[in-house]
Design brief:
Two copies of one chain form a homodimer. The first copy, chain A, is of the alpha+beta class and 214 residues long. Chain A folds into two domains: 7-84, 3-Layer(aba) Sandwich (Glutaredoxin), CATH 3.40.30; 91-202, Glutathione S-transferase Yfyf (Class Pi), Chain A, domain 2. In chain A, 51% of the residues lie in helices and 6% in strands. Chain A is built from ten helices and four strands. Chain A has helices spanning 14-25, 45-50, 70-80, 91-105, 109-112, 114-121, 128-150, 165-179, 188-198, 201-204, and strands at residues 6-9, 31-34, 58-60, 67-68. A four-stranded mixed β-sheet of chain A has the order 2-1-3-4, with helices on one face. In chain A, strand 3 (58-60) and strand 4 (67-68) form a beta hairpin.
Chain lengths: 214, 214
């Protein structure tokens, strides 16, 4: 029997959450190896020997090199398990979905993840209130644009009625926004996708609250 | 005659620089429409009506919707003009190259671009020295990891001897690092790719110094 892939995971990591959703959407059973970000385990020698960047997620599939970076892992999963696809077949539609996904993965999430918030509080000595406003600022700027960009082609999900890479990136970002008490009231298209996804087991089962407690 | 694609461009934007390299590698002639980031033109109504996110680059190809987000545009170019490809055909190698590209595009560049540096100096009141240290910190952390990840499979470029998406992301980031006087001495693999690229017209012609003065 083929060994199940091992996901190097942390329950609250948005990037790991994306990969959990992706694995679930493809129906790939996997084992979780928790890397505790709160204990700094990702920066330890043992994990760095596996992934020099010291970030989660990473995915080890038997017979393949360790993979890192959520978007690269999701691309590999999509090539390996083509059905259901994370991206539309038409190349203009694909560019639209990829653009929405990277609006989140490149322009929102990197500014608001743990290592950055720690740098603001530590070396920069930013107050808790100013840090929260920083968080809110990038969410608001990003979600406002995403709402406009998504609207014309959205359905039950961000693009049409089936989940795409854009939803895989959106749902963890919405979870994060709520955790920091950022209102998402002004983004009806994003909220609709979130509501749809909450009824889809692939998304629901990947939710941080359902991962093993640490 | 088919109209040439229009690139909404700014000479110093790393993301726009990536797309200039990509268009050149594919041998696609294009027209440039400069959006002056220094004058805030990207946030003006005229440009926002085209691209609600108010960022460069954007690419308009006749008969296709406007495209935004450099990685989405590069993916579209790669699908439309398959030769030479930006990514290896083998899916494990492809994941490796995509991982390196997103280490730059998701984990370095978003923290160091103009809108973020402006927020540090403005709302957060961070000193010039602390801002420069922030810049240096994310470059050093990212490049150290990238150097280790790239080394085993690097050739004249980051992956083998032909340019990939990883180099398309690296070269603008190296340009930026040097502009902020960040040493890249400790990253021989990155410097070798940079040296190779400097002798390749597709990269050299995309250099910010060769774009129209503003």
């Amino acid at each position: 029997m083929q060994k199940a892939p091992i996901l190097y995971d942390y329950f609250r990591s948005s990037a790991a959450y994306r990969v959990r959703i992706g694995l679930n959407l493809k129906g790939v059973a996997y084992e979780k190896h928790t890397v505790s970000l709160i204990d700094g385990e990702q920066k330890g020698d043992a994990y760095r020997a596996l992934n020099p960047q010291g970030l989660v997620p990473a995915l080890k599939v038997a017979g393949h090199p360790l993979m890192t970076q959520s978007l690269a892992i999701l691309d590999w999963l999509d090539a390996t398990y083509p059905d259901p696809s994370f991206l539309p077949g038409d190349k203009d539609e694909r560019a639209h979905v990829l653009s929405m996904a990277t609006m989140i993965a490149c322009d929102i999430h990197p500014l608001n993840n743990l290592r950055v918030l720690k740098y603001l509080k530590g070396p920069l000595g930013v107050s808790e209130a100013a840090k929260d406003e920083w968080y809110r600022h990038w969410i608001a700027e990003g979600f406002e644009a995403l709402e406009k960009v998504a609207q014309p082609h959205a359905g039950a999900y961000l693009y049409g009625d089936t989940p795409t890479l854009a939803d895989i990136c959106l749902i963890p970002q919405l979870y994060n926004a709520r955790r920091f008490s950022v209102s998402v009231a002004n983004y009806p298209t994003l909220r609709r996708a979130d509501e749809t996804a909450s009824g889809n087991h692939a998304f629901a089962d990947a939710h941080p609250d359902l991962q093993e407690a640490l």
